[in-house]
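Hi support team,

I'm opening this ticket because the web form for multi-chain structure prediction keeps timing out on my end. I have pasted the exact lines I submitted so you can reproduce it. The total is 226 residues across two entries, so I didn't expect it to be a heavy job. Is there a limit I'm missing, or should I split the entries? Thanks in advance, R.K.
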Amino acid sequence: QKEVEQDPGPLSVPEGAIVSLNCTYSNSAFQYFMWYRQYSRKGPELLMYTYSSGNKEDGRFTAQVDKSSKYISLFIRDSQPSDSATYLCAMSVGGATNKLIFGTGTLLAVQP
Amino acid sequence: KAGVTQTPRYLIKTRGQQVTLSCSPISGHRSVSWYQQTPGQGLQFLFEYFSETQRNKGNFPGRFSGRQFSNSRSEMNVSTLELGDSALYLCASSLRTSGVGEQFFGPGTRLTVL
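Hello R.K., no limit was hit. The queue was backed up. Here is the completed structure from your submission:
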């Protein structure tokens, strides 16, 4: 079993829809949680960074962390065709290292 | 502010050869990490350097090595290339010196092994 599980999709939604992306994990020591967006043939771009449990909002994006359920989510409101990309969750135990464990990524297509 | 840069962007090698990839972090960032991305395994951690010292290493064979210079630039080397080494190699830099900071990725080097 992988430490981080993520539904690979693909997920196809109409423009303007609310998108929900999720990851589950098994390592209760994870404390730092991130979401990255990766366009085809590009490097991952950091979208959201959270520490421990709770919610964080940034524009159309909301990240939620539920450590009791070992479950994190990314919500995208008013989705746009430009949001079409692969979304990767990543997490770390912290300490003296920046090592990230990634989910496999969810491919999202927003149809105009 | 310039982002993370990686050179070369594309590379084609044959089995048995060796390759060196370069990464220049964001100015002021002293932590540099390397990841391998493949369709089957996704993003996997290779190693992390901070102040010229390897701070952590992933589960890869000894053919994969790296180093960091005093200006924080980093290189990774793969010796005796295998077909399975074909991948996108990504470098990420972070400002944080402890804990987990925001990590910013470069565009990657796409390595093809024939």
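A quick check on our side: The interface with chain B takes residues 31-32, 34, 36, 41-46, 49, 88, 90, 92, 94-105 of chain A (CB under 8 Å). Let us know if the file doesn't open in your viewer.
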